[in-house]
Amino acid sequence: MTIRVTTLNGDERAGDHEATWLLGHTQRIGFRNLRRAGRDLLVDATLHVRCRHLDGAGRRAESGGLSCRAHGFSDIPAASPTATPPRRLGGDRFTLVEAGRLVEMQVPHPKRSLPVLSDGLDGINPCSIAPCTTADHTRGSACCRDLQIEILCPETELELEALIRSRLSPYLCKLVREKPDALEGEMISACGYLDDSGLNCSLHDRTRADGRPAKPDLCSLWPDDGKGLHPGCIFL
To answer: Any idea what the Cα angle at residue 182 is, between residues 193 and 24, rounded to 5°?
Structure first.
């Protein structure tokens, strides 16, 4: 399907941060063909979230395969895993979006790294010790494990909308139609910029060659009113 990354102004780099953030969530989303269409930055995507009517997903293949509880189909072959190009390439090399394109680049780390917030934590990244959880009860760095997406799906595309709405919750859920041409929803798909521990952002404090931060402000600024934070968030 196609996801609207952002709506651009006249600057070709205006969507770089949002695109870097979105295209970083590679755990359950495969991205391809990032492009501009009018004022929109779009990307084609494969969402690796099974249908909620699929039965036997946790069984071994020799036990009879998968079946569909909605239509009665049986012996459904399991999906083959899709290899996703890594966003961390080793050392100071990363894949970021630059001028609307995925680009491999050197993004050096400053000699003195600042934590996300330092108040009273003696330089510790608070997200690394927070007990926050996503809706599937995965603990740690919850805000780096889920995201909101806007899927292009006109009201006339009834079959596509039915397929989207039949995905397994909470991995794709809370689907609403705010616009005639799109559905908005929440998806659990961890960010590929998390370090090996899965708790810290490897892009934090890194800057691009032109001085812009490697990641968007939304990864470092927290809502003052506490709304939108995950259960267990340390900032609550």
So the answer is: 5
